[in-house]
């Protein structure tokens, strides 16, 4: 597969450009909004806090929003790259495969019937939901004489996503208080989230990021086929299980912070492979950077497209992701 950046120096330069883009988007997100501020105001909010509206907005709203978008975007991008590599399915995504839906379903159940509000419990429930839905999708996709296939995985993911959405709506109809608490969260948003949410899940995100890059070489070998990987001495089942654990951590942590946000993990691996080729180490790195950039850009657009109202960020990512999904799906059918 030909790539735009075909040498390591060019790829390193691309990383530097990507990081600069993240800094620029972070600056834009921090300074502009319903209340426009300045870079000096942002600095003064931490060095000479005076209780003004501008300082409160910077500390309590803008900074958590930027950090949430960076962390969740990177996690979704890397999770999508891992999932596409593991399943060898170009339309794989934590949203399309039901992981986000399962995590959201478990959280809504806990809020509706158990009344859980603890950040720690919230996080673990999200992880459990993502793991449970992922396992069900895998089992359903493995049924039949052909075994596990990309088409069956996609159909199983769509079925679980629809089932989880119906169950969530049914629960919320029964409990109007829970509806008020989780409605905006369910449509996906990095706004209105306290920094404590990110602090609660960030250790898991960081471990999963490191795990993804440690798994990059084994996954690269696995992409050559199970038989070849076993012939080279790889314990393929262990690699698949560890990859699944990392995906669950990334997906569950992202849902706990921002709700179910789709299509970021679908788009970013394709863009990363277009830029750097099929080397999984570079693909995972670029997917993380691109995921953060896409989510930050979507969040900025969500604030300005209907100003002073705000569009859920999940709707903004869907505007890009759905046409991309159709394009990738049609491209795959044409190859057949």
UniProtKB/TrEMBL annotation:
Family annotation (Gene3D superfamilies): ABC transporter involved in vitamin B12 uptake, BtuC (1.10.3470.10)
Keywords, alphabetical: Cell membrane, Membrane, Transmembrane, Transmembrane helix, Transport
Gene Ontology CC annotations of this record: plasma membrane
GO biological process, one term: siderophore-iron import into cell
Location of the protein in the cell: Cell membrane
SUPFAM superfamilies in the record: ABC transporter involved in vitamin B12 uptake, BtuC
TM helices/strands, residue ranges: 12-35, 66-84, 96-116, 122-141, 153-174, 197-216, 237-263, 283-302, 309-329
GO MF annotations in UniProt: transmembrane transporter activity
InterPro entries recorded: ABC_BtuC-like, ABC_transptr_permease_BtuC
Topology in membrane: Multi-pass membrane protein
Family of the protein in this entry: Belongs to the binding-protein-dependent transport system permease family. FecCD subfamily.
Protein name: Iron ABC transporter
Source organism of this protein record: Brevibacillus aydinogluensis
């Amino acid at each position: 597969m030909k790539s735009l950046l075909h040498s390591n120096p060019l790829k390193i330069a691309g990383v530097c450009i990507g990081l600069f883009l993240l800094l620029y988007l972070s600056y834009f997100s921090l300074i502009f909004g319903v209340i426009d501020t300045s870079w000096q105001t942002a600095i003064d909010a931490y060095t000479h806090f005076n209780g003004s509206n501008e300082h409160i907005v910077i500390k309590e709203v803008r900074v958590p929003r930027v950090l949430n978008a960076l962390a969740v975007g990177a996690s979704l991008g890397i999770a999508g790259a891992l999932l596409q590599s593991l399943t060898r399915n170009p339309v794989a995504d934590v949203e399309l495969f039901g992981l986000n839906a399962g995590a959201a379903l478990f959280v809504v159940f806990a809020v509706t019937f158990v009344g859980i509000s603890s950040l720690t419990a919230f996080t673990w429930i999200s992880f459990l939901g993502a793991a449970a839905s992922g396992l069900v999708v895998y089992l359903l996709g493995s049924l039949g004489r052909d075994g596990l296939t990309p088409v069956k995985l996609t159909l199983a993911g769509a079925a679980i996503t629809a089932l989880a959405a119906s169950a969530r709506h049914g629960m919320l109809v029964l409990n109007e208080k829970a509806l008020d608490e989780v409605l905006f969260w369910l449509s996906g948003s990095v706004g209105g989230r306290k920094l404590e949410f990110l602090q609660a899940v960030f250790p898991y995100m960081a471990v999963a990021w490191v795990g993804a890059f440690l798994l990059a070489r084994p996954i690269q070998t696995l992409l050559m086929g199970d038989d070849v990987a076993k012939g080279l001495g790889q314990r393929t089942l262990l690699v698949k299980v560890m990859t699944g654990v990392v995906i669950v951590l990334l997906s569950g942590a992202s849902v706990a912070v921002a709700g179910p946000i789709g299509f970021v993990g679908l788009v970013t691996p394709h863009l990363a492979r277009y830029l750097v080729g099929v080397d999984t180490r570079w693909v995972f790195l670029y997917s993380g950077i691109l995921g953060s950039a896409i989510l930050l850009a979507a969040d900025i657009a969500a604030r300005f497209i209907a100003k002073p109202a705000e569009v859920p960020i999940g709707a903004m990512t869907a505007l890009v992701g759905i046409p991309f999904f159709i394009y990738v799906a049609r491209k795959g059918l044409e190859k057949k």
